[in-house]
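call fold(seq) -> tokens
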Amino acid sequence: MDFIVRNLGVFIAPILFVLIYFFGRHIHRNQYKYEIAAFILANIVILIQPRFLNIPIPFLNLLITSGHLSLAIFLLVIFTGVLKKNSKAKKALSLVRGELAVIGFIFLLPHAFARLALALSGYNMSGLFAFIILIPLVVTSFMVIRKKMNPKHWKNLHKLAYVAYILIYIHLAFNISSNPNNRFIRFDTYALLYHLILVTYIVLRVIYVTVPNLKKKKEKKPA
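ret:
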């Protein structure tokens, strides 16, 4: 049971994918409504934390404050880029990838707020660094802002997402403390799924991104 709870975001991701597959167009057409709803819910979760109203709602704490819902959403965002081109799954996720990135970040706010003091003390700061990197990426995901940017600059900026992905992996898979009074690096005993996800991502990227790109380059070379 502890293994399921600690890896809840991974188990939620397939359920979210099914919902997005069938309702993605509705999310796309009503982007701001979903984002506003997520923002309101995220703020409610922040307010019910102990430092404020201290209202015990275990389900919301487990799902949102612990970061599982945000992780599930970001897993879909991350894997959209390495799915087979023109596959139904890729098309469904690509339609709402920007919206998912924004909503995933919004649901990350309660987790970041709850863990900020711990991160600033030196424990698992990789999560804080990933959060900071995600800020400009999420802001520039809004089409209103994206249209005002040079496409090349936008693309280069969003390459930082890979840095954020690595930091998120480190944050999930290891326990690291840089506190001068208590330095350590430990493997998380519940992190097996995160290692498998990393390997799966790399394999899919090689198969559906790297290899096709290499073939295209060879075809473009003059005989």
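DSSP finds twelve helices and two strands in the chain.
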